[in-house]
Amino acid sequence: MTLDQLIVGAKQYRDSLGDGRDLRTDREQEAFEVNYKKAQRIASGLMNFPDDVAHLQARLDEALAKQAASEQKHAQLKALLDDDEDGRYAQQLRLLSEGKLLAAPTVVFWAPEYAAQRVAELTDRRDRAQSALNACVREAEELLGTTA
Prior knowledge:
Blueprint: H1 3-16, H2 26-80, H3 88-97, E1 102-104, E2 107-108, H4 112-144
Antiparallel strand pairs: 1-2
Helix pairs in contact: 1-2, 1-4, 2-3, 2-4
């Protein structure tokens, strides 16, 4: 089943539970609330988690590009150090490592340590969002008795 079909199925399941106010016993009311909240949580997760994953992936892609630019500049400056008579490239390398070397006016290269830390953080956040989506899909499939 597609994600849209799982969302529709979870909503239909929730709607099929009927009106909880018609239930007579506390046990029936409690079972209704548990099932209703589960179906609602699944439908909500299926609608929201894909956007969360896409947003985090876009941020991770940006961070990876900035990290690559920083690494490329680092390699370029390292290669120029042999011919650095006035210490200009060594100074630029120091500024790069501090995250203070300008890539363009008002834009600095990321410090290599910061770039690695940021990429690791965003990768972890994206992976957790993807795991949450995968868990939600599994729950929806169990609830509906299907397999994607």
